[in-house]
Amino acid sequence: MIREGQGASSGLLDGVSLRALIAYNTPWRRPRYDWRMKRSELLQKAATVGLVTAALPLTPRAAMAKRAAPISPLVPPAGGVNVAFLLSDGAVVIDFAGPWEVFQDADVVGRSQPAFNLYTVAETNAPVTVSAGARIVPQHTLSDAPAPNVVVVPAQADPTAAVKRWLVAMSQQADLIMSVCTGALVLADAGLLDGLTVTTHHSAFATLPMQYPKVTVARGVRFVDNGRIATSAGLSAGIDLALHVVARYYGKMAAQQTAYDMEYQSDRWLDADNANYSKSPPPQVGAAVCAVCWMQVAPTTS
Questions:
Q1: Distances (CA, A) of 65 to 79, 123, 141, 272
Q2: Are 293 and 207 a contacting pair, CB within 8 Å?
Q3: CB atoms within 10 A of CB 171
Q4: Are strands 216-218 and 140-141 parallel, antiparallel or unpaired?
Q5: For 284, which DSSP code?
Q6: 7 close to 92: Cβ distance less than 8 angstroms
């Protein structure tokens, strides 16, 4: 699923980047008739970009779950927290709609004004085509967007030079830059994850440190909060990270009330546990799972 909007075809392995390879292997993006690949081909492609499986920087789930739970308070502006949602073609709807819903529903006792002020930002005013073909007209461009306190970066197309410059500038001004799913790759492209431990969608556990060797990836956690940079696991994990952000600004009770109002019954935003993704998934019928990237492969040709 890496960067939704990255096209894939049956000829993917012929000289195409590993990001596209991961996108191809995601169930809702790949052709159903061709979901297996040779493990030997995969490893050959991986070797061309310097993959050494034993050296992949990965952090065990238990250690990261303990690290993610603490809530470092942030001071909300009197007029509410400005949250910019950075969008481009291929942005995954739940990656930004989930956090959007959390922030708009934030329930803060004694506050009459909205706790968060939400708006979309893109490189231009042109409509953005997001997952499944929905089209969104951005409210602001990079040049006229209000100064954000928080920037949300969902999985989407590769960032342009202008987007990367904007992200770097915002990282120096905003309280927090948060990615959801493979939005982490957008931040990595901008150099914002160097030296950090992060997480992302499980399909990118191998790809992210392979392409950005200064980044360490944690498996089995819903999110990792590094203070001014936070990253979440895939898709629905953005809701957990957003609730965590509510707690940072307005306290744990506000986040709990927000989750209750949303009828969101998971408490993983409290401990960031994502144990189901700390180990490789079981193979599908007639397939095997690659130990490197967790792709489903054909055992007879691997």
A1: 33, 35, 36, 5
A2: yes
A3: 17
A4: unpaired
A5: P
A6: no
* CA–CA distance, 94 with 137 (Å, rounded to integer): 17
Backbone dihedral angles phi then psi of residue 141, each to the nearest 5 degrees: -100, 175
Of 70, 244, 44, 214, give the one whose Cα is nearest residue 152.
Answer: 244
Structure tokens at 60: 């065990």
**247 SS3 class:** helix
Grouping H, G, I as helix, E, B as strand and the rest as coil, residue 145 is: coil
Q: How many CA atoms lie less than 13 Å away from 95 in the CB half-sphere?
A: 32
DSSP letters, 214-232, are T-EEE-SBSEEE-SSEEEE
Q: 3-class DSSP state for residue 18?
A: helix
Query: How many Cβ atoms are within 10 Å of 99's Cβ, its own excluded?
Result: 28
Structure tokens at 38: 């040779």
> Residue 225: which of 64, 94, 103 has the closest Cα?
64
Q: Which of 275, 234, 198 is nearest to 27 (CA)?
A: 234
Q: What would you report as the CA-atom Rg of the chain, rounded to the nearest whole angstrom?
A: 19
Q: Tell me which range, 22-26, 69-73, 256-260, 288-292, is most confidently predicted by mean pLDDT.
A: 256-260
- Closest by alpha carbon to 245, among 259, 264, 261, 234? 259
User: How many angstroms from the chain centroid is the CA of residue 225?
Assistant: 12
User: What is this structure's pTM?
Assistant: 0.78
Per-residue pLDDT tens over the stretch 21-39: 444 444 433 333 333 334 3
Joined tokens for residue 27 = 């169930």
Residue 229's region, left for phi above 0, alpha for psi from -120 to 50, else beta, is beta
